[in-house]
């Protein structure tokens, strides 16, 4: 491999980032169909597959993707590209390619779309041949781009309703007219005449109506018959119209429409009344001849076009076959590169492809194209040479891949050998070079799964061994570094210790020196340097102290010689002490002093020790009897202490904390009175007794802590309940609040105890809160009334604040007065009215007075509202006039000086007159009084709706309105009284 090949960049379409691969697809030329097909099928990212599908022009591959891809968007894009190929949406698309794409479309809606919008007429007709649904045929007939497709679709439509829809909705005159000609029902023709989209179709429909509905025959004298040989005037009009219709048919470009119209005319001509005159018969025959000639001419043109189209299609198909053969060779070369691992076999197969390619070139050059247009010939030639060049590129690529495979096979064998061999110093560098070369070879080539699997297995094995070796080295280095850090911590603490001994100091210096000598490797150079620097610092600080202690030790040993000699003399003097126990005690004291002065020069140590030991042994021999008695006493003490330990252990699990604590304290006092026990038992018996005591007191402490936590939790719950009652004390929703307080009282009983010092205080607080709530609950009506009065007084005060002073000069209204007054009125309507009637009446009067004053003082903001004074005054006057009109005119009243008898007689006369009129009149009068009373009530309601009235309006119009109402009701009452 060349040196520069190792540094070749990996192609973008193989990048691990989907965004990079997506950008690479945009840069790939259309000629790379093989690579685009691979990406469209095998890329892991759906967006990349979609981008590749949009540039693939192989219908078979597109169908495979549309049926098998896992992503719905990719499948939709594949279908759309197939439809675009079939429609001919691309500039260089040929009719044969469109037909090939159409053959791979399986969805009926896609086939229908091709039939409507295909740029090639043959493709549109081929798609129409696959449509069978009547509705779909009607849709194609209405909207297809080609007239031949529209008319062919109409010819297959047998349903009259669908023909009617075509005639009504189609925007193409030819098919709409042809559909109209195929309608046999007058009602449907009439519908076309009324609602068709094209005016020409409307006109033709009206003409057909005149043909289908001949004019009525003129009436004849009764008893007379018209001669059979004389045609009626209406029949001649129809014959003229029929001749004109056939003459127009000869100018239509649709053969089927001409045949349909001619057949209808020839069938309808004999059915007309009477015989036609010679002129009209000759005109009709001439028109029919012209129509038949037009049909024959159109048939000849169709046959000629079919022959030419067949010849063009045959020549184009021959060249398409050669192009497809070249394209198949491109695909075969790609297959060879993918499927043939053996280099020799690949070379042989590539030679065969080259021979086939030369044969294909000869076939292309031998083709004759007399019927193809220059554009079609150029398009096919461009397609053939694109396939030819692609084949040559694929052959070169396959040969390059053969060389790559051979080298990759060698690299795999080297990798497997390195993965099995032990690791040495240069193994990692050799492996890095091998892996780099493998990556360069893999870039841009066909992936050999077998070789790739072997290389990946070798790489995994090598990486595992390398990682294990690195981990082992790092683990040892971390452990060594940690041990040295622990050593540094220990010797540093020792150097700073006040109890440093010479022995420890010497040992620490030796360990520091050994650590510095062997610290040649570690996890990092900085860690090693920091640790060495730290150890040298500790060594420098520790060495003077050790030297000083060594000098002091020598002086101490020299001084201890005199001390030991003095202790020897004292021990020898004890031989004359009569009390053996006292002598034994003194020997023990001397032995303790000897231990403190045990360091002496080596040359004198053994002699002094033997002298002291001899004197001590003589004293112990005399004190053995005393020691035996002492041992018996101490054994008894041990039994007593064990008994106390048993008693303490029996009390450990008790929950009677107070009594048990007193009992254990008494046991502890007894323990203090007991003397010593035999040596070796002091610690065990004491720890047993202390463990029992500690266990009990620990349990008592834990129990107390638990109870404190429980008390604290209960206290928090009770505090929360008190807070809830306090919150409900000011609530206005009394029913809900009283139920909630009762629930809280029940919940209080379920809460456990609290600390005794807090119990009474918390209870009093809860009880006080509940009492306060129920006191307010008993006074809830008074509280609510007071709140309602206060709310309305506040609103009155807000209104009165807008009133000007008595001596103030009238000026402009405050800013936003109208909105603020409206807000106060809204709140006044929503305010509660639960209060004494006198208080409510006083507040209402105060409110009305303040509102009227504000409106009177500043009328401008209220113009056009319900507080407009002019409008209110006009409305009040109208209501007064309405009620005054309802008051009946009274009959002449009897004189004031008339006697009661005269007044009664007058009323009786009125009643008698009313009774003599009749029941119907009385009923009418009652109905009129009821209607009038209802009108007065409506007027009173309207008067109340006027709201607040200024004082001048209230004094004048208010009294007038009330007086009119009283007069009406007085008159009605007088009519009711007998």
Low-confidence stretches: 1-8, 214-233, 916-920
| Biggest pleated sheet | none
Oligomer: single chain
How many individual β-strands? 0
Strand content: under 5%
Could you give the distance between the termini? Answer: 137 Å
Mean pLDDT over the residues:
76
What is the secondary structure topology, with strand pairs?
Blueprint: H1 18-27, H2 33-42, H3 46-53, H4 59-68, H5 72-87, H6 95-103, H7 108-117, H8 121-129, H9 134-143, H10 147-155, H11 160-169, H12 173-181, H13 186-195, H14 199-212, H15 233-249, H16 255-268, H17 278-339, H18 343-365, H19 374-420, H20 427-442, H21 449-496, H22 502-518, H23 525-573, H24 580-596, H25 602-622, H26 624-650, H27 657-673, H28 682-729, H29 734-750, H30 756-778, H31 780-800, H32 817-830, H33 837-857, H34 869-886, H35 900-917, H36 919-945, H37 951-976
Verbal overview:
This protein is mainly alpha-helical. Among the domains are: 132-204; 476-551; 573-703, no CATH class; 868-978. It has helices at residues 18-27, 33-42, 46-53, 59-68, 72-87, 95-103, 108-117, 121-129, 134-143, 147-155, 160-169, 173-181, 186-195, 199-212, 233-249, 255-268, 278-339, 343-365, 374-420, 427-442, 449-496, 502-518, 525-573, 580-596, 602-622, 624-650, 657-673, 682-729, 734-750, 756-778, 780-800, 817-830, 837-857, 869-886, 900-917, 919-945, 951-976.
Structural key phrases:
978 residues; mainly alpha; 37 helices; 0% strand; disordered N terminus
Short overview:
This protein has 978 residues and is mainly alpha-helical.
């Amino acid at each position: 491999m060349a040196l520069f090949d190792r540094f070749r960049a990996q192609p973008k379409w193989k990048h691990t980032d989907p965004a990079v691969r997506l950008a690479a697809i945009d840069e790939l030329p259309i000629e790379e169909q093989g690579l685009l097909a691979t990406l469209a099928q095998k890329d892991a990212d759906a967006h990349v597959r979609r981008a590749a599908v949009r540039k693939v022009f192989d219908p078979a591959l597109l169908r495979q993707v549309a049926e098998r891809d896992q992503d719905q968007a990719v499948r939709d894009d594949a279908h759309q590209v197939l439809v675009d190929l079939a429609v001919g949406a691309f500039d260089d698309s040929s009719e044969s390619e469109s037909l090939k794409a159409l053959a791979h479309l399986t969805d009926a809606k896609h086939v229908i779309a091709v039939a409507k919008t295909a740029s090639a007429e043959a493709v549109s007709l081929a798609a129409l041949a696959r449509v069978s649904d009547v509705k779909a045929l009607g849709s194609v007939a209405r909207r297809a781009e080609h007239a031949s497709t529209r008319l062919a679709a109409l010819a297959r439509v047998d349903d009259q309703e669908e023909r009617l829809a075509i005639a009504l909705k189609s925007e193409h005159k030819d098919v709409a007219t042809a559909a109209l000609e195929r309608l046999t029902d007058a009602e449907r023709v009439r519908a076309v005449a009324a609602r068709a989209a094209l005016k020409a179709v409307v006109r033709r429909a009206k003409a057909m109506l005149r043909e289908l509905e001949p004019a009525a025959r003129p009436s004849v004298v009764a008893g007379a018959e018209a001669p059979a040989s004389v045609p009626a005037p209406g029949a001649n009009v129809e014959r003229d119209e029929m001749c004109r219709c056939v003459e127009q048919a000869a100018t239509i470009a649709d053969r089927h429409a001409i045949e349909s119209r001619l057949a209808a005319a020839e069938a309808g001509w004999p059915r007309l009344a009477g015989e036609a005159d010679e002129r009209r018969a000759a005109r009709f025959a001439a028109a029919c001849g012209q129509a038949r000639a037009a049909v024959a001419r159109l048939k000849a043109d169709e046959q000629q076009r079919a022959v030419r189209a067949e010849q063009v299609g045959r020549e184009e198909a021959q060249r398409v076959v050669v192009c497809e053969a070249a394209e198949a060779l491109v695909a075969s070369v790609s297959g060879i590169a993918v499927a043939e691992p053996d280099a020799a076999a690949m070379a042989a197969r590539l030679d065969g492809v080259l021979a086939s390619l030369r044969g294909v070139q000869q076939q292309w050059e031998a083709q004759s194209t007399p019927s193809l247009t220059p554009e079609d010939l150029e398009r096919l030639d461009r397609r053939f040479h694109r396939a030819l060049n692609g084949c040559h590129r694929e052959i070169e690529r396959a040969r390059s891949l053969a060389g790559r495979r051979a080298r990759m096979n060698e690299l795999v064998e080297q990798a497997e050998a390195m993965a099995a061999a032990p690791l040495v110093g240069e193994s990692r560098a050799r492996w890095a070079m091998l892996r780099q070369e493998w990556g360069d070879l893999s870039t841009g080539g066909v992936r050999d799964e077998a070789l790739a699997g072997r290389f990946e297995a070798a790489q995994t094995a090598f990486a595992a061994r390398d990682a294990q070796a690195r981990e082992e080295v790092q683990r040892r280095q971390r452990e060594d570094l940690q041990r040295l850090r622990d050593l540094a911590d220990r010797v540093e603490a020792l150097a700073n210790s006040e109890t440093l001994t010479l022995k420890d100091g010497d040992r620490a210096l030796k360990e520091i020196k050994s650590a510095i000598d062997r610290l040649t490797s570690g996890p990092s150079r900085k860690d090693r340097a920091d640790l060495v620097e730290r150890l040298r610092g500790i060594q420098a600080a520790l060495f003077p102290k050790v030297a000083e202690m060594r000098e002091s030790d020598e002086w101490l040993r020299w001084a201890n010689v005199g001390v030991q000699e003095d202790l020897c003399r004292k021990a020898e003097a004890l031989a004359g002490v009569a009390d053996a126990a006292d002598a034994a005690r003194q020997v023990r004291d001397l032995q303790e002093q000897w231990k403190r002065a045990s360091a002496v020069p080596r040359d004198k140590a053994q002699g002094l020790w033997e002298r002291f030991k001899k004197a001590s042994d003589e004293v112990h021999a005399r004190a053995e009897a005393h020691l035996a008695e002492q041992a018996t006493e101490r054994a008894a003490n041990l039994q007593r202490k064990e008994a106390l330990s048993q008693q303490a252990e029996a009390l450990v699990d008790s929950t009677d904390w107070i009594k048990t604590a007193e009992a254990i304290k008494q046991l502890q006092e007894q323990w203090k009175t007991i003397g010593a026990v035999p040596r070796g038992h002091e610690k065990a018996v004491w720890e047993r007794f202390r463990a029992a005591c500690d266990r009990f007191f620990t349990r008592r402490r834990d129990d107390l802590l638990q109870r404190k936590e429980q008390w604290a939790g209960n206290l928090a719950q009770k505090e929360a309940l008190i807070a809830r009652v306090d919150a409900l004390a000011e609530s206005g929703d009394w029913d809900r609040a009283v139920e909630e307080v009762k629930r809280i009282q029940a919940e209080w009983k379920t809460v456990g105890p609290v600390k005794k010092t807090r119990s009474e205080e918390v209870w009093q607080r809860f009880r006080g809160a509940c009492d306060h709530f129920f006191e307010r609950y008993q006074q809830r009506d008074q509280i609510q009334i007071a709140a309602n009065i206060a709310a309305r007084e506040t609103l009155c005060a807000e209104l009165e604040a807008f009133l000007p002073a008595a001596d103030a000069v009238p000026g402009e209204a405050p800013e936003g007065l109208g909105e603020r007054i409206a807000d106060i009125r809204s709140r006044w309507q929503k305010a509660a009215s639960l209060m004494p009637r006198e208080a409510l009446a006083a507040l209402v009067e105060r409110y009305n007075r303040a509102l009227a004053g504000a409106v009177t003082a500043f009328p401008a903001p209220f113009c056009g509202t319900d507080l407009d004074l002019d409008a209110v005054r006009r409305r009040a006057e109208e209501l007064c006039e309405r009620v005054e009109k309802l008051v009946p005119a009274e009959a002449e009243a009897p004189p004031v000086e008339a006697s009661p008898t005269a007044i009664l007689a007058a009323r009786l006369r009125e009643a008698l007159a009313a009774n003599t009129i009749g029941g119907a009149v009385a009923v009418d009068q009652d109905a009129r009084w009821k209607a009038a009373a209802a009108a007065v009530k409506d007027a009173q309601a309207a008067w109340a709706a006027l709201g607040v009235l200024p004082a001048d309006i209230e004094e004048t119009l208010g009294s007038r309105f009330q007086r009119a109402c009283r007069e009406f009701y007085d008159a009605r009452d007088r009519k009711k009284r007998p």
